[in-house]
Design brief:
The N and C termini lie far apart (about 55 Å). The protein has an 8-stranded mixed β-sheet with strand order 1-2-3-4-6-5-7-8, sandwiched between helices. By secondary structure, it is of the alpha/beta class. It contains 10 helices and 8 strands. It is about 35% helix and about 25% strand.
Length: about 250
């Protein structure tokens, strides 16, 4: 059981955020997070959030539940914020879907790891921005285990869309209600979205994203992800990369 003093210290960095449909999340932060970005250390402000159940809609209830909620068995999303994100003009924002294989292991079957680190670099160079790391987006929302099955089908010749369909999933199950709630809590002015998919920008704007433009991000094209990148363009509406695929 947490002491009153510990609770009070933690509650100063906690905030309950409600959506229009009355769903709630608990936003925690900022935490100072120094990150090695190429040859220098850059300091970000780190936030994370937890979707709340009806019986944990206040800060005390959240703190009382953490030892029994088995949060390590689930996934929580978080945000890295750089610069004066709240007030700056034209900050860059990346909604990055977790990719266990690409982000952690450096898999060349996708371009996710490259996009993660390049987005952080772009945000720092821009002077202001935020990267949302979305933990329930693995495999476009089908989860890590299902993604491994999809990879097996891809080794048999399926593309990413065909593999998801063969497993009984839609092409893309990702949702953005929670990160949009957090974005609107941290900033009211428009942002520039880092994405290769104008359809994604349009869809997010329909759900309340305040964005006036988007910045494409291509790179790390190679022999292993050639079909993956081509499928993004041909079936998901991504802007074609200007450079040729290289080995």
């Amino acid at each position: 059981m947490l002491t009153i003093d510990i609770k009070n210290r933690l509650k100063e960095k906690m905030k309950i955020v409600q959506n229009q449909d009355q769903s709630s999340v608990c936003l925690v932060g900022p935490v100072t997070l120094p990150i090695q970005l190429e040859n220098k250390v850059v300091t970000f402000k780190w936030y994370t959030w937890l979707k709340l159940k009806e019986d944990t809609i206040d800060k005390d209830s959240v703190l009382d539940s953490i030892t029994t909620a088995s949060l390590a068995d689930l996934q929580q999303s978080s945000i890295l914020v750089y610069g004066d994100f709240e007030n700056s003009d034209h900050p860059l924002v990346r909604f990055h879907s977790i990719c266990h294989t690409g982000d952690i292991f450096g898999s060349k079957r996708c371009d996710c790891g490259y996009q993660l680190h390049q987005s952080l670099k772009m945000i720092v160079e821009n002077g202001h921005g935020a990267l949302f790391y979305l933990a329930n987006h693995e495999g476009r929302g089908i989860g890590l285990f299902s993604k491994s099955l999809a990879y097996l089908l891809q080794e048999e010749g399926y593309d990413t869309v065909e593999a998801n369909h063969a497993l009984g999933f839609e092409d893309d199950l990702r949702t953005y209600e929670e990160p949009l709630m957090i974005l609107q809590e941290l900033r009211s002015k428009p942002v520039i979205l880092i994405t290769n998919n104008p359809k994604k920008l349009f869809a997010l704007k329909e759900k309340g994203l305040s964005a006036d433009s988007h910045q494409p991000l291509w790179g790390d094209s190679n022999l292993y992800n050639k079909k993956y990148l081509e499928t993004k363009v041909m079936k998901s509406g991504h802007i074609p990369e200007q450079k040729e695929i290289t080995i």
